[in-house]
Design brief:
Its EC number is 2.3.1.234. The chain has 11 helices and 10 strands. By secondary structure, the protein is α/β, with parallel strands linked by helices. The protein folds into 2 domains: 133 residues, Nucleotidyltransferase, domain 5; 169 residues, Nucleotidyltransferase, domain 5. α4 crosses α11 and α5 runs parallel beside α7. It is globular. It starts with a strand and ends in a 17-residue tail after the last helix.
Length: 334
C-alpha cells in the first residue's frame, strides 16, 4: 500500500510516499527556516503563504522521486493537528483535493503520533509496546505506545516545550531562530556546573510532567541582571548549565517512566532529539539499565511527511479514515 502524505503543521512543507508503513519511497522537505530567521521565530501568516506556494511542487517532487504516478497511490494522508491553523489548513485542503480527485481514502494524522512513528521508519524491527520520549519545538511528553493504535500519555509539559525553551533563551543570547542547535554547540564549550538554575517541579517527586517556564525565566533573568550590572557573562557556562538542567530533568523522568512501566525500549522523537547533551546522557543511562535506545536520524526527528505516511498506514490497517469534510485542528489533543 502506497500512501502520499502531507505535513504542513509549522514551517516545513513536506510530502512523502511511504510503502506499507515502513519503506520511504520519497520524503521531500521544503523548509522555511531562512524566511522566518529574520523575524526571530515562525510568523504564522508568512508560513501559510509559503505552504500555499510550495505544497503542490513538493507533492509532485515526492511522486517523481518515488518513481510514482498518481495512479500508484492508494491513500492520501495529512497532518490534522496540532500546529498553526493556517499552515495546517493548506495541507488539509491539498490532501482533500487529491483524495477527492483520485477517489482514494483520506487519513487524518495526529502530528505527535507521527513524530513517534518516525522510529518505525528508522528501525524495521521495532514493534509496540515501547516507551517514547517526545521532545520537540512545541511538545514535551512521555508516551506508552501500547500497540499500533493505542497510546497512553504518562506526562507532558504544563507550560513551555523543551525546544521552545532552548529557542527563547538562544534568542535572548542573540542567536537566530531556531536557537536550539546554537545552545547545543555553545554548551559543549562551557562548564555545566558553573550556575545552578532551578530544577523544574523539584518538589513533585512522583510527577512525570514537565515545566520549563520557571527555568526559562531564571536563565533570562540571569542574563538580563548581568547586562544591567554590566557584568561579563560566560555564555558558554550559561548554555551548558541550562542544557544540563533540562537534560537531567528529561532523562530522569524518562528513566522513572521506564522503571514504572518495565519497558526495555525507549524511542526518542522530536527535533530536540538532535541535542548532543541529551543523546549522550540518554545513551549512558539506557546502557546502564540494559534499555534499547531508538533515535531516528535528524531528518526524521524534525517535521517530515514520511512520519505522517508511516502513522497513516497503521491507521488504515485499523480502518480509521477521515471524511472529506475534515478540518484542521490546531489543538488536536494527543
Ligand atoms: O520537532 P521539531 O521540528 O518541532 C516541532 O514539531 O515542534 O523540532 C524543532 C525544535 C526547535 O525548537 C529547535 O531549536 C530544536 O528542535 N532543536 C534543538 C537541537 N536541534 C533542534 N534543540 C536543542 N539542541 C539541538 N541540537
Ligand atoms: Zn513537529
Amino acid at each position: 500500500m502506497k500512501i502520499l502524505a502531507f505535513e504542513t503543521s509549522c514551517d516545513e512543507t513536506s510530502c512523502a510516499v511511504v510503502e506499507d508503513g515502513r519503506r520511504i519511497c520519497s520524503n521531500v522537505i521544503s523548509t522555511q527556516i531562512a524566511i522566518h530567521k529574520k523575524f526571530g521565530g515562525v510568523v504564522p501568516e508568512i508560513a501559510s503563504r509559503h505552504h500555499i506556494e510550495d505544497v503542490l511542487p513538493v507533492a509532485l517532487e515526492a511522486l517523481r522521486e518515488a518513481d510514482c504516478t498518481w495512479d500508484d497511490i492508494d491513500a492520501i494522508a495529512v497532518t490534522e493537528g496540532p500546529g498553526l491553523v493556517g499552515a495546517l489548513l493548506v495541507g488539509v485542503a491539498a490532501a482533500k483535493a487529491c483524495a477527492w480527485a483520485l477517489n482514494k481514502p483520506l487519513i487524518a494524522v495526529n502530528h505527535m503520533e507521527g513524530h513517534i512513528f518516525a522510529n518505525l521508519l528508522q528501525y524495521p524491527d521495532l514493534e509496540p509496546p515501547f516507551l517514547s520520549l517526545v521532545v520537540s519545538g512545541g511538545h514535551t511528553m512521555l508516551v506508552v505506545v501500547e500497540d499500533y493504535n493505542t497510546f497512553k500519555l504518562l506526562g507532558q509539559t504544563r507550560d513551555d516545550a523543551a525546544g521552545e525553551t532552548f529557542d527563547k533563551i538562544a534568542r535572548v543570547m542573540g542567536f537566530p531562530y531556531p536557537g536550539g542547535p546554537h545552545i547545543d554547540r555553545l554548551a559543549a564549550e562551557g562548564n555545566a556546573e558553573a550556575i545552578h538554575f532551578p530544577i523544574p517541579l523539584r518538589r513533585e517527586h512522583d510527577t512525570l510532567d514537565f515545566s520549563f517556564s520557571g527555568l526559562k525565566s531564571a536563565v533570562i533573568n540571569y542574563l538580563h541582571t548581568a547586562e544591567m550590572k554590566k557584568q561579563e557573562v560566560n555564555k558558554a557556562d550559561v548554555a551548558a548549565s541550562f542544557q544540563k538542567t533540562v537534560v537531567d530533568d528529561v532523562v530522569g523522568k524518562a528513566m522513572q517512566a521506564l522503571e514504572r512501566t518495565g519497558f526495555k525500549t525507549l524511542a526518542l522523537a522530536g527535533g530536540v532529539a538532535a541535542n548532543h547533551g541529551l543523546r549522550h546522557t540518554l545513551e549512558e543511562e539506557c546502557h546502564k539499565r540494559g534499555v534499547r535506545l531508538c533515535r531516528p536520524d535528524p531528518v526524521l526527528c524534525t517535521d517530515n511527511g514520511a512520519m505522517i505516511g508511516c502513522r497513516a498506514y497503521y491507521m488504515a490497517q485499523a480502518g480509521v479514515y477521515a471524511p472529506l469534510t475534515l478540518n484542521a485542528d490546531p489543538r488536536l489533543p494527543f
